[in-house]
Sequence to fold (164 residues):
Amino acid sequence: MTAQTYLAYDYPLLGAFWTMLVFFLWIMWFILLFRIITDIFRDDTMNGWAKTGWLVFCIVLPFLGVLVYVIARGKNMGRREVAQARAQQEEFNAYIRQTAAGGRPSSIDELAELSEIHDRGAVTDQEFRRAKELVLAGQGPATQAAPPTAAQAADHPPTTKRGA
Fold:
């Protein structure tokens, strides 16, 4: 018999199956270990000493540390991961909105801000109508001389009274 034929007889199909299963479980354990380490650093409810203790426990006694962590804190691992994914998605959506708007607030936001300023009495009806026309025309108060923004109006109270 040749060496290749002898190896095929010496390593049967069931042996190959068990080898692949052990290799798969080993890889899955490493994935779980890295997810736990990520979760330890992600958790804002733990202080630094608790994070250090869990990290040392998972590194010094890896199998026991991972098992105890999953039993003790595994219930909230998914919740923390979902919360982080939602926060990342919100940041991404805000970035897309800001980029798509060219760094300027949308017309709806500008109209709402103008309405608030007008309701407080910081601008007259004529100024409000002119600013509203500019916003609806696409020029907006940011590019034209228009009433102050909400923050500026709060800092400087109106000097004239409406209807006087």
